[in-house]
From TrEMBL:
InterPro entries: CO_DH_flav_C (IPR005107), CO_DH_flav_C_dom_sf (IPR036683), Diverse_Substr_Oxidored (IPR051312), FAD-bd_PCMH (IPR016166), FAD-bd_PCMH-like_sf (IPR036318), FAD-bd_PCMH_sub1 (IPR016167), FAD-bd_PCMH_sub2 (IPR016169), Mopterin_DH_FAD-bd (IPR002346). The keyword Oxidoreductase applies. It comes from the Bacteria. Keywords: Oxidoreductase. This is Oxidoreductase, molybdopterin-binding subunit.
């Protein structure tokens, strides 16, 4: 680990000033400290924001939900409003990491975490995300866990967050505070696909701070849930996952929100699946037909071709769980 300075701030103005001068924000530190230890990240200055007043969870007008960036994952998962309004968020958090990590890691840090691609974390390997222009070792290397959606010739690494998949499905908004004031970014635009610049991972401006994630009010009743498929039952990242939320009234699906994780370079929204569901009556045949569209546009690699079919089956299974069958 390389030398660095450490500053603990007590208010947002102090934090923004330090961020403007190049400081890296840290709260739980469950990702950044690992990357520093492996010399993947070498920040010269850390700004501890864990004392900022960003730990509120509250319902918004109309039945939405706002979760402060410094709310711990375990706190968010257990919060009555989260569990009641959006079980998909609670379930995605409870299926993430270990209990010890969930007690430390924050919501803001979770959506900001960097890929678990082994080539990214191996400083001897070519990785455009870590060192722009060096190449992508995963393209010709062992790529079983890599992405099949949203990839480019520069990067095929997946985004590791589970709760980010739920936020993507629910079309959440990220609240930011920076030197130029407050702004809001749709979750779909916050995490960036790699394209030719895989080292740019979030739509953050210099010195900006994530302050909250807000989920919009959705029609009620709303059933939702999260399914994660992985090589082992615990402490493992997703091979595929599915976040599903359905508003069913009068026996007809009026609104559908579906996204997948473990298969995309960012949490992958599935609009074709959603369109196939809306206006239809729940049935086993509908779930199967809708799930067939989950892998539209997939570009599998040598070792992860199985993900195409696994994604379809994962989405179908979760549609059955959330929507039921007749």
């Amino acid at each position: 680990m390389f030398p660095f300075s450490y500053t603990r701030v007590s208010d947002t103005d102090e934090a923004l000033d330090a961020g403007r001068r190049g400081g890296r924000y840290i709260a739980g530190g469950t990702t950044l400290v690992d990357l520093m230890r492996e010399t993947v990240e070498r920040p010269e200055s850390l700004v501890d924001i864990s004392g900022l007043p960003l730990r509120e969870v509250r319902a918004t007008e109309g039945g939405g939900l706002r979760i402060g960036a410094l709310v711990r994952m375990a706190e968010a998962a257990a919060h009555p409003k989260v569990r009641t309004l959006y079980p998909v968020i609670s379930e995605s958090l409870e299926l993430s990491a270990s209990a010890q990590l969930r007690n430390m890691a924050t919501i803001g840090g979770n959506i900001m975490q960097r890929t678990r691609c082994t080539y990214f974390r191996d400083v001897t390997a070519d990785c455009n995300k870590r060192e722009p222009g060096s190449g992508c070792a995963a393209l010709e290397g062992h790529n079983r866990t890599h992405a099949i959606l949203g990839t480019s010739d520069a990067c095929v690494a997946t985004h590791p967050s589970d709760v980010a998949v739920a936020f993507a499905a629910l079309e959440a908004t990220v609240h930011l505070l920076g030197p130029d004031g407050e702004r809001r970014v749709p979750f779909a635009d916050f995490l960036l696909r790699p394209g030719n610049t895989p080292h740019r991972e979030q739509a953050l401006r210099k010195g900006e701070l994530v302050t909250a994630v807000e989920v919009p009010a959705l029609p009620r009743p709303l059933k939702s849930g999260y399914l994660k498929v992985r090589d082992r039952q615990s402490y493992e990242f997703a091979l595929t996952s599915a976040a599903v939320a359905l508003h069913i009234r009068g026996g007809v699906i009026r609104e559908a929100k579906v996204a997948s994780g473990g298969v995309g370079t960012v949490p992958w929204k599935l609009p074709a699946v959603e369109r196939h569901l809306v206006g239809e009556r729940p049935s086993a045949a509908l779930w199967t037909a809708a799930a067939e569209k989950a892998a539209d546009g997939a570009r599998p690699l040598k070792h992860n071709r199985f993900k195409t079919e696994l994604l379809k089956r994962t989405v179908e299974r979760q549609l059955r769980v959330v929507g039921g069958t007749k």
